[in-house]
What does this fold into?
Amino acid sequence: MAGTVVQAVPTEETVVQPWPLSSRILFRFFCCYWLLYALPDGARKSVLDRIPGNQLLIQMWRVVVPWVAIHVFHVTGRAANYVLTTGEDGTLKYIYNLLCVVLSLVATLIWSILDRRRPDYCTLHDWLRILVRYTLAVALFGYGFAKIFPVQFHPPGLSLLVEPYGDFSPMGALWWFMGASIPYTIFTGAAEVAAGLLLLFRRTTSLGAMVSCAVMANVVALNFCYDVPAKLYSSNLLLMAVFLLVPDLRRLFSVLVLNCAAAPSNLVGPRFSRRWMRTASTAFWVLFVGFNLAANVAGGWKMYKQMYLNPARAPLYGLYDVENGYSNWRKVAIEFPSALTVRANDDSMRDYSTTYGDDTVTLNGEEILHWSRPDANHVLLEGDGKSIRLRQIDVSKFPLLGSGFHWITENLLDR
It folds into this structure.
């Protein structure tokens, strides 16, 4: 019919341009690196923890990494021992990460020689994004729910209320800064969980990557600036978020900087040709996501009950001023059944292990003191010719715990 304009119907099939050589080489490297990094190493939580043979992989790393540390880098002592080394920033963790990089470089070189004629890796890239998405989401769930149920950061304990601030390490200052505000801790955890949830769906992956970049950039900055021994792990998580965001950078630049329209993202991912495979993949997704969410919620709630609802407290729980007795004792903090902390007159902090009987407390397994309460505000410790009188302190009077929230503050000096 004259005057009629016929438009082509868009389809999901798009013409894929060959990738530049640099893009193909970078993809090969990150494909190898993320696969190696996602494999279980026996320390951090991995999305592939339950794959068959994971214990063999863990044992392999526990043999190879110390061998490289000792014979290549000449590491000795505790730093070369997996059992004694703790923390994410130990020497062996850096060597493990270096091995992942080196092995990935070697694999990239071999792959580039054997597969140099392939024009693109679109399908493999889709599968790799799935692996990175879920690896990052699982990590975000772990850290996020530990803040929603505030067990990673919690309010300062009694002994910390009397410890000189100058004695805190940078990490300790960060920990108690976060724990001093439970609502803020929950807020940061909710942001991490929200980022993880967005990464579970292909349509919201770009938004999830943006949120993940924001929250992980803050975490990395805190870890570096406050010397928290999780710099290496958090940096890898941030790199995962950046990796997921890279394909959308040009589109985001057009929209956010140039104020121009951008073409929609191609959301077509890996598809199974057979119906039973599609059904099985959906069922697997539901079980995988449901298990991880349920495990994190259940674990967080269990720890929350232990720490907040039913905490283990010593019979003499409280913070005390020393009225008389030990000449060098100034304040005593009794929080847990197994420990007692003393702030001495010279401001040093001393810890004593404790064991309680019906009316006795044993310090460091040697000195036995009988305790009694002359009245509601005092505790008397007697034994071995000593008599220590303690007066309980109302901890709600500490500004850190009792000042509360104010909409209006007339004078900053009052804070």
